Amino acid sequence: xxxxxxxxxxxxxxxxxxxxxxxxxxxxxxxxxxxxxxxxxxxxxxxxxxxxxxxxxxxxxxxxxxxxxxxxxxxxxxxxxxxxxxxxxxxxxxxxxxxxxxxxxxxxxxxxxxxxxxxxxxxxxxxxxxxxxxxxxxxxxxxxxxxxxxxxxxxxxxxx
Length: 160
What we know:
By secondary structure, this protein is mainly α. It has helices at residues 2-20, 24-28, 38-61, 72-78, 86-105, 126-144, and strands at 64-67, 115-118, 122-125.
């Protein structure tokens, strides 16, 4: 998992200056009324980090786990990300993901085949959840910074 943790860190370091250069007006702009702004996408990535941290840690303690689904639109709307400070969101997102890279890197290989059943999504191994988390992050960073074109290894399960 060291490679995955390194990939996460390198992705963060690559996009950080680009995120910081996005102005507040641009970060708040919604391309369409029913589409997320850049702030809301980054907020969604913070929510994803939060939800996945629970999975990463809890699945180290149990070989099988049932987990509630994630209502992403409700989470984004209820936290009012579009009115949050852009630079604060970036700092929080960065710190949270560096911590997740630390968790991933220090995980015992014995737990990687532990299984989680996510409500309305299916059953997955911890290894898959970790790798998919990084790919999901890249997918959304490509939306925030369209010229970025981060390579995704496989199609993520979230379709968002």
